[in-house]
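Here is the promised in-class demo. Please do not try to memorize the tokens; focus on the logic of going from shape to residues.
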């Protein structure tokens, strides 16, 4: 009798698994035209919409041996109503990482990385000029299950987002800065700025075309990391459950020495829970 094989993190992070999941859109029911508004809400990082994106990134070219890294970011977004005028939106990023030789002959590691928890305090209604905005704290939690998967530091700093939605267009920027405030004294301190300008276009039949960068500046090493992401998304219905599938290429325009090189791939599946 053949023993059953355990499913590993490497199996989950395999790009082929992602492609099979995205191909499921062909089998799903089409979204109605009025679901374009729901698709558009996904372009708003602080929309009053519960969502659970599962975002996959695969990059290569690390170090002298051309190491590679796959990251599955589990990113639940949950809005809470404070009063008639304000929401607080919780955005959590839990990275599940599989990597090989990202620091020379460093071997393979797989597990959980450091979690980033952000809270945005945001007015329920846009400004008179149509701006949507939110501000709050960003917290870095040293949850990495391996020393090479995280910094072993607690971090804290401000985060903010501002955007505008006009017709089918959404454009704006999200950013934060995190300083390490406690943790392992043998590890390097953290002072890092994250900037994410974005623009997207949503069609009447719930397709979304998006372009963004996720630039990070490390103030300790004085180095930029700038991946450029181009994605195409489609909102579909599985029964009454709306799901968004997304995929596309990413290109590392700037990376530190021994960082990722050239082209990578991004894909995501987002479960939506409209109120």
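The designed amino acids, position by position:
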């Amino acid at each position: 009798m053949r023993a059953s094989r355990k499913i590993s993190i490497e199996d989950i992070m395999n790009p082929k698994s992602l492609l099979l999941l995205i191909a499921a859109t062909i089998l799903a029911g089409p979204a109605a035209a009025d679901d374009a508004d729901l698709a558009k809400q996904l372009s708003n990082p602080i929309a009053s919409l519960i969502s659970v994106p599962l975002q996959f990134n695969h990059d290569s070219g690390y170090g002298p041996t051309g190491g590679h890294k796959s990251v599955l970011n589990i990113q639940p977004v949950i809005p809470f109503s404070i009063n008639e005028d304000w929401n607080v939106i919780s955005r959590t990023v839990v990275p599940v990482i599989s990597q090989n030789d990202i620091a020379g002959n460093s071997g393979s590691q797989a597990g959980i990385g450091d979690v980033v928890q952000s809270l945005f305090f945001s007015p329920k209604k846009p400004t008179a000029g149509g701006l949507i905005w939110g501000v709050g704290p960003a917290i870095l939690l040293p949850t990495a299950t391996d020393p090479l998967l995280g910094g072993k530091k607690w971090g804290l700093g401000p985060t903010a987002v501002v955007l505008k939605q006009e017709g089918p267009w959404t454009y704006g920027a999200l950013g934060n800065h995190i300083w390490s405030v406690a943790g392992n004294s043998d590890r390097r301190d953290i002072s890092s700025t994250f900037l994410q300008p974005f623009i997207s276009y949503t069609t009447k039949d719930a397709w979304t075309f998006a372009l963004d960068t996720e630039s990070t500046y490390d103030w300790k090493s004085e180095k930029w990391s700038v991946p450029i992401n181009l994605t195409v998304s489609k909102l579909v219905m599985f029964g009454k459950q709306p799901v968004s599938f997304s995929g596309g290429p990413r290109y590392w325009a700037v990376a530190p020495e021994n960082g990722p090189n050239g082209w990578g791939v991004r894909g995501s599946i987002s479960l939506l829970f409209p109120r």
